Fold:
Amino acid sequence: MRSSKIIEKIKNMSIEEKVGQLNQIQLEDTKQVRDEIRRGRVGSIILADTATAGNDKQKKINVDLLNELQRIALEESPTGIPLIFGRDVIHGHHIVMPIPLAEAASFNTELLENAYRAVAEEAASDGVHWTFSPMIDISRDPRWGRCIESFGEDPYLTSEMGKAAVCGFQSDDYKSTDSIAACAKHYLGYGAVEGGRDYGKTEISEYTMRNYYLKPFKAVVEENVATVMNSFSEISGQPVASSRYLLYDILKTELGFEGFIISDWASIAKLVNHRVAKDEKEAAMLAANAELDMDMVDRCYIEHLSELVEEGKVSEETIDKMVYRVLYIKDKFGLFENPYTEQKKVNFEKHIAIAKQFSDECMVLLKNNDILPIKHSKRIAVTGPFLHEKRSHLGSWAPDYDAGILKSIQEVFLECEDNDKIVFAELPYLWDDIIPTIRDVDTVVIVLGESAKLSGEDNCLTNIDLPREQLEFAKKIKLLGKKTVGVMCFGRPIALGEAELYFDAILYAWQSGTCAAQSIVDIIYGKVNPSGKLPMTFPRVTGQIPIYYNYPSYFGNGMAYYGDGSNYWDCKSTPMYPFGYGLSYTNFEYSQIRCENYILTLDELKNGETFKVSVIITNTGVRAGKETVQCYVSDRVASMTRPIKELKGFSKVFIEKKACKEIVFELGLEELGFYNRNGEFCVEAGEFDVFIGRDCMTDNKVKITVMNIK
Ligand code: NOJ
Structure:
């Protein structure tokens, strides 16, 4: 239902005032900014100092300044419409959660929702109304630095995580003063940039778009995400910022998105660089006619839209629709009722506890030759370039982090019981300087990683191997006959084909936020049982990219691409570690999978009937633990090639030692169907395999038949 209050307001606005609502400017404490607000030329302010705010130091938020600017908008501008303040609050504010890719490794949507609720409370208390998160770009290429901001390669996992993030930020009560509007980005296909080069070209067919890239956006639109940001990229020759087909026909009409679209930083002006517009005026015309609602910082709208309306090149009706969407969200998030920020006392202790659980649950044990957990009474050495590191554990996008509570791995080890059993081998100038220090221990923990500057926006790599000097260092320690534990603090998946040989155990710790160091030490000593699973495939070598599990059945042997068949002469074709993979300190056994109803008809499915598939999981080990039970579907024969397997459900469960649990998945039309060559969602009669297992390589399956009978 359209709000008559907003319609009335728009009727009384001049074209300049309307265009002002579509203009987002950068925050500056200047007379010019105050004047622009006073003249009704500003609808929103982005609290960012640079275009790549995740990479650079940002100014601290000044709530008094925000309140003062808000007062000018309310009391001195012609419309009295409040400003909406946006900031990139991506995976944390003062307390920083793991990077989103690591969050996805937790496979814990409830935890993610709680975490983002905590983040929203902190940000709202600092005057942030709107965050540019979650990023729900499917990413299959670890060379692309922004894969760290994604939830990985799978549309279903990304959708579930994306929905949880939106619910966490926005809460059930949008108007509450600790809810913030979310922004799903970057619509569409940004993660598919060729070669992992940020901002580059993408080539996505309609079939691939609907069956992979669009799905998470559909999911968050259904969850009422307030805003969507366009991608910088072009898709098959059409920059998204000027694509009416993508922005209006698909997002607004087909998916029914009711919020507003914000352009990514200067992406309207960049239509000139794409050479689809001859100048910024033409760029403004194309973007407005595509109904891209708000212009982030490049001033194309504020400089040209009024004139374009006068010239009849953009209709006033279009502008009205765009303004409506912006005011609708301002109203929905309570800005008319509560425009000012009153800083609240935030319960940081509670947020730290959530961050700790998150870093505990996202770390992935990749290898363990009976070496972890280590007993406190055992003598160990700890070394490596990340011994003292703090900031890099936060990853990209943490402009407001609380530095005071960050600890290095060495600091946490020093707080442990029996810390006199630990020797710290400082990274030497001459590597053999450490030999005397580690001579008397048989186990060496080597803490490795990449700096937070190596990933994130515009930070891409051609080679994702473990950095050569780190590999050589580990190799030398291994050649001394030591047992080695590799703790790897990276933002992206790395290629461990060669390095893996030099480690007896590998804990993939990612960049896991404020509590990363504590979680690493707790996992090493077994206080925490690791439970993370990979949200992105780990290749053996960089040259295997792209490698993702939900690849279509193809000309070769069905699994040649991801399984044992061979495409390359110089490398095994299997991934180093597959999607969904991760070890625990206990062992979970899966019983034979069962289905309550092996035969269904198409009509039953279309009428909403579902069927249940279940399995019993037994913890046969000697300690309690959490397991992510994963359900995959495979369409045996279809009119189009379908993925070898597709994730359709997961459930993270805690099971006491020697106990068992039944896990049930309910599947139906949604899980068996796909978008066909006409862009229609369909289920085709035939046989399907439903798998339930510990990762995407599971063979534990049951066959379902869908019949086309009345
Ligand atoms: C550019 C990035 O692509 C986007 O994700 C971010 O939200 C904006 N800059 C604003 O900082």
